[in-house]
Every structure is written in structure tokens, then in C-alpha cells.
Amino acid sequence: MINFKYNKTENIEEIDFNLLVNQESSINEIMMSKLKNCICSSGFLILKNTPISLNTINDLFVQYKKFFSKPYMEKNKVNMSLTNSNRGWGAPKSEQVNSNYNPDFKEIYDSGPNIDQKHEFSELPYYAKNIWPDDMSELKNLADNFYIQCNNIGLKILNKIAKVLNLKENFFSDKFDLPMALLRCNYYPERPAWAKKKDFGIAPHTDYGCLTLLFTEGDPGLEIRKFNQNWLKVKANKGDIIVNFGDMLQLWSNNQVKATQHRVIGTNKTRFSIPFFFNPRHDTVIKSYKNKDDLLAGDYLSYKYDTTYRHKF
Ligand SMILES: [Fe+2]
Q1: Is residue 231 pLDDT above 60, yes or no?
Q2: What separation in Å is there between the alpha carbon of 262 and the centre of ligand 1?
Q3: Cα Rg of the chain (Å, integer)
Q4: In the chain, pLDDT over 70 holds for what percent of residues?
């Protein structure tokens, strides 16, 4: 393992996904050094030229928007508060990502992996059955396919991160064979007239998992915390993937990978974004102690879920 010193780079690096994963490319090394820089400096990067097409992204946004435009009574039929996990619709204020601020005014829709209901993990909340509105099979199909594509991209990025960390390139592969991943759509309505200083679309927070892939429609809204504590607006196009790293990977990597704070204040326009949160299988040891039980990825995630999803308080 190598020890990074955080430098003060504040721009968000753009990385060509094809050139990053293609080791034959003559500029693969440049992409790898860019990745190394992102990991320890801004904690964010923008992936260009990825395998997910604009049409695929557009189609999924259309379906999620259709869901969020439904009346409350319809959305409430798939309210995640009716489940023991985080599947389905999260109403405004259903999540409080930072206890120093008020619950977020965004709405969300969450889905996870589809594992065999006879599998020994199927009883665990991280592998809970997805719930979908009865009349939205198109949303279900597109989201399930999107989940698989994100899973593949996430693993390829992790393989490169392993290389940067001087681990075996496939270090993460077996740990992500049954990932506790989550696909979400965020719906940020216009910033409400009642909103005050402590109210956000999503309050300042670090993500709590390993890797986040974020799809937007190219509209502004996301801001990240810079070294000087000011906030930097993220500019990305539709089709780009904004990538950032979470607390679990920071802990797992002994602080070599940086989890950076970010937020969405909300504007006078509605905004949608689709994050994919990529986390290892629940029994992965992310930290070992001499005189204590090992810390498992699932236990870490449960602690985070239980303290942010308000229906689990
Ligand atoms: Fe986040």
C-alpha cells in the first residue's frame, strides 16, 4: 500500500473510461495517473466515453419522472416505510443525511440487487426484494438493466483503484460478487419557499459506501466541498458519469481514498439525478482489530442506513 498526501487540486478531473480500462492504449498511464490524483485530492472524477448510451440514460429518466409525477396516494403504495428495508419510494424528508441539518426535501426511489429468494442472503435487508408500481413494468426492466450495467462499470473502476493502491488488480472482484448495491433516482423539486438555512435538497454529507456513479441531465445542482471549505459547482454533461468515493472505501483503504462532502441546495428548477451506490457483499471484512471483532461491510452499512433513513429511526 502507498500513502498519499492529499494535494490541493480543486478541479474535477475528466477521465476517458475506454482509455482507462484499455491497458493497450498508449495513454492508459495518463488515465491511471489522473485516477490516482482524483482518489487522493478532490475525491471526485467525471467519466467520459462510458458504455452506457445516452438513449439508455434518457429512457430511464423518462420512466422515473413518470413515477414521481404520480399523485401521492399512488406513490404511497410503494412507500419504503412499509418495508423493513430501503426499497421503493422515499417521501420528502424520508432521509436525513446529516443530523446537523433538517431532513432532505428531495424524494427518492431505491432498488437493489435481484437475488434468488432461496439464497441464504435473501433474508438480509441489503438484499431485500425490490418493489415496483404495478403499472410500471418498463421502469422495472430499465432499472434492472441499468443496475447491471452500473455494476460492470463499477467493478472495472474498482479494479483500477486496486492497481493504484498497489493491490492485486482483481482484489475487489470476489468481494463484489453479491454486492449490496443500490440504484436510486433523486427528485429535487424546486427549492420550497419555506426552506431556511438548514434545509437542503440533500444536506452536506459524504456517501457511506465505496463507490458512487452519478448520472445527471447536465443541469447544475451538485456542489462539492473544496480544501478551502468553499463549495465547487460540478459541471458534467448528460452521458457523463460523476464518480465519487464513500466513507467505507476511505476506511477500508486506511484513508488512502478520500470521501468528499457534497450537497444540493435546490434552485427554482426541478432536477433529477440517478446515483448507483456500489458496496461489497455484506460479509466482507473492511477492518480488522487486534482485540475486537472484525468490522463487516454489512454492519457498517446497517449503521449508516439506520441513522439516515428516518423510517428506520
Ligand atoms: Fe451523496
Answers
A1: yes
A2: 6
A3: 19
A4: 95
> How many angstroms separate the alpha carbon of residue 206 from the centre of ligand 1?
6
Ligand 1 centroid to residue 284 C-alpha, Å: 22
Model confidence band, residue 6 (pLDDT cutoffs 50, 70, 90): very low
DSSP string, 163-183: HHTTS-TTTTTGGGSS---EE
Q: In 3D, which of 181, 183, 202 has the Cα closest to residue 301?
A: 181
Q: What residue ranges do the domains of the chain occupy?
A: 14-312
pLDDT at 75: 97
Dihedral over Cα of 72, 74, 212, 10: its sign: negative
Distance (Å) from CA 207 to ligand 1 centroid: 5
Q: Which CATH number does 14-312 carry?
A: 2.60.120.330
Compute the distance from residue 290 Cα to the ligand 1 centre, in Å.
32
Question: What share of the chain has pLDDT > 90, as a percent?
Answer: 81
The cell for 168 is: 492485486
What is the CA(220)–ligand 1 centre distance, in A? 15
- Measured over the CA atoms of residue 187, residue 216, residue 145 and residue 87, the dihedral's sign is negative
Q: Which of 78-87, 91-100, 173-182 has the highest mean pLDDT?
A: 173-182
pLDDT of amino acid 313: 55
